[in-house]
Amino acid sequence: MDTRRLRLLLALSRRGSMREVAEELHVTTSTVSQQLAVLAKEAGATLIEPDGRRVRLTPAGRRLAEHAVTILAAVEAARLDLDPDAEPAGTLRVAGFATAVRRSLLPLVADLAQRHPRVRLLIHEHEPAEAFALLAADEIDLALTYGYNLAPATFEASVSAVPLWSTSWGLGVPDWSSSLTSSASPTLPGSAPLALPGSAPPTLTGSASLALSGSATSRDLAATSCAPTATFRDLPATSRDLPAAGGIGVASDEAEGAVREPSTAIFTRYRDEDWIVNSRNTADDQAVRTIAGLAGFEPRITHRADNLNLVQDLIVAGLGVGLLPLDLPTIPGVRILPLSDPAVTMRAYAVTRRGRTAWPPLALLLTLLQRDSPKP
């Protein structure tokens, strides 16, 4: 079989239109039709069938298109093997989640520009499922994805995954430590005092229940005044849950020589709160449900957001609790409680299509990514 015809079939499997395939590969529509007819004779099977004004692959055509991915990758790898020391040159299309882009890719930009000016990076921000779809469609060369120890990432046989770095996560909760040193409860501008998550509302003579102003932001909560009659019945019972607001808000039991609570005990303390999970990936949802299940309850998942800053804002606004990286700088009003037994660990991966890693620009980027990643 001619690899050029296999390439036409693979393009048709993605586009669904001979005209679009012709435009993509800069040939005529009749050429596409003729070459696919020859390929069908070579394969001894019907590969396409009408679908309205378009065409679609038959089951045999889909199977051959799947084989074409492997065949074309092997041919490309063989060609590159003839010149393994070629100077990297070309455009690298990378899709990854925001943290990986900031932590892994951006630090390499200056080095690539100086040492390998013929390599160009195109960066797209995507969650793993979206990145995998782009990789399968051959619309990107590299995907930066992740999984949790409690919700492991899975990879199809058509891709290769290289582990990079990992980071520990904890439970982000409201931090009302400043309220304990004040005689009042937090209020929003122009509103009644705020009832803390899980607590009884403040009892103020002549005041109404809280009505959030449309102009108020979550950060207003950390900086506003308080009323002396607020109650704090559901605040964390120990002072280690209540550090000064702002900075890296992580509890440090070891510094006090205390035994860290297991994750199930921490989750149980917040079992009656609303929970916040990712809106574009299910991995942290699974991790939350796993620990909550071990603790004997079903979490009330109410809010979904994929931006960690927005998750913090929701926490400060008293709308729930959720998983956050332990090394994430926190805004005032957020505290991250370390989790152990079981711990929650996220691991990042560099994922490519099999047979592609010998391409010099991609091989270079993978080397740089692994060089700058701490060993597991």
UniProtKB/TrEMBL annotation:
Query: What are the HTH lysR-type domain coordinates in residue numbering?
Result: 1-58
What is the name listed in the Swiss-Prot or TrEMBL entry for this protein? HTH lysR-type domain-containing protein
Give the record's keywords alphabetically.
DNA-binding, Transcription, Transcription regulation
Record-stated family: Belongs to the LysR transcriptional regulatory family.
Q: What organism does this protein naturally occur in?
A: Dactylosporangium darangshiense
Where does the source fall among the domains of life? Bacteria
Q: Which InterPro entries match?
A: LysR_HTH_N, LysR_subst-bd, WH-like_DNA-bd_sf, WH_DNA-bd_sf
Q: Which SUPFAM superfamilies match?
A: Periplasmic binding protein-like II, Winged helix' DNA-binding domain
